[in-house]
Write a structure and sequence with these properties.
Blueprint (H helix, E strand, L loop, with lengths): L1 E3 L8 H10 L6 E5 L4 H9 L4 E4 L4 H15 L6 E4 L2 E4 L4 E4 L2 E3 L3 H12 L7 H8 L10 H14 L7 E4 L3 E4 L4
Parallel strand pairs: 1-2, 2-3
Antiparallel strand pairs: 4-5, 5-6, 6-7, 8-9
Helix pairs in contact: 4-6
Amino acid sequence: MIILDLVLPKIDGLSLLKQWREDGLSARVLVLTSNGSVEDKVRSLNLGADDYLTKPVHHEVLLARLRALLRRCYHVQGPVLRIHDLEIDASSRSVKRAGQAIHLTPREFAILQFLASHCGKVVSRSLILKYVYDDLNANTSNVVNVYIRYLRTKIDKGFEPPLILTRRGHGYLLRAEN
């Protein structure tokens, strides 16, 4: 959940929002700004904002809107996520494909779980890198590519259909159910 003011010191808030969405950020974004024009509201929502409030706003209204966004954002799932014949058990940190157990390292599991949490959506290499490694430079490291290759070998090799897909120039995704 992000509360974004459109007036920022170094970058326009709408430009930042647009970049986040292009990078695959899926967090809920509530725009909070002093400008309440219809054009700004429409542009914010079209660029990926989930809600829009104008200042001044009563803190109870802000909290109510945040709770509403959380209700839309989180849906309770069981500990086992199933995508095609892939099973990811978050509680035991285990993975199976077509009933066959697959051993993953903690880092491989983290990346697979991140892809699964964005199932059917392209996730940029830099977003994966930020999620898994806080201290690496996204421009100089190919660690994500290496781990995606490891995952493909373990998750996709010998199984149909392949589940880990590449969108050239955009990132990776875990194939959705349909």
